[in-house]
Amino acid sequence: MSKRVAILISGGGSNMVSLCEDMVGDHPARPCLVLSNNPDAGGLAKAAARGIETVAIDHRPFGKDRAAFDAAVTDALERAEPDVICLAGFMRILTPEFTARWEGRMLNIHPSLLPKYKGLNTHARAIEAGDAEAGCSVHEVTAELDGGPILGQARVPILEGDTPDGLAARILPLEHKLYPAVLRRFIKGERELLNLS
Ligand code: GAR
Question: Hey, which of 38, 82, 96, 129 has its CA 20 to 30 A from 47?
Answer without folding.
Answer: 96
